[in-house]
Amino acid sequence: MYSELRKYLLLHHELPIPGVGSINLERQPAAFDFANRQILPPAYRIIFREGSVQASRRLYGWLAASLGVTERDAILKFNDFVFELRERLDRGEKLEWQGVGHLNKGLGGIWHFKPGEESIPEGDPVPADKVLRSRSSHSVRVGEDERTSEQMREYLHTEPVQKNTAWAIALILLVISFIALGLYLSSAGLKPGSAGNHSKIKTEEASPAPRYLR
Prior knowledge:
Blueprint (H helix, E strand, L loop, with lengths): L1 H11 L1 E4 L3 E8 L2 E3 L4 E3 L2 E8 L6 H11 L3 H20 L4 E3 L3 E5 L5 E5 L4 E2 L4 E2 L11 E4 L2 E4 H40 L26
Antiparallel strand pairs: 1-2, 2-5, 3-4, 4-10, 5-9, 6-7, 7-8, 11-12
Helix pairs in contact: 2-3
């Protein structure tokens, strides 16, 4: 009976035990495990609630189908189970329910319950590594036009190359100019007149003035 009732608890998340209380499954949401970079699945925690409860027809019908007996026989078997369970607990015994937990009745009729498992996961953890898709295609709005990310990537990549080429050509011409100037100055010397025109001016004697002007 213990294993069948545990299956019922896992299936319906609630197991009433008349005269004792109810054992429930409390759902906990998924959580992020920062240390291991993974998302933990939702899990269930087994808890005990003391109070007056009654077994339902759903429980009797499920037990009848699980045990292969009539519903009347299932009711009798469940009542016998509860009666024996309460007797053991009233004697101060500690009930060890495999897969559910430990239940006992302390001084003053106070119930003590310790779940057999801290939590029952609903699935397996999921890796939470960040995926970077630098080449993924998507639409980009440029003014009134719409372009793809590949077109914008090519456009933004081509323009700087053209600017860099013009800048490189200007730099090469400037370097060549400095080299030519350096070669010229080294050959002519660093004299103040080295940069001027070195050709000599030829002077000729003027013809004699006319006789009437003498």
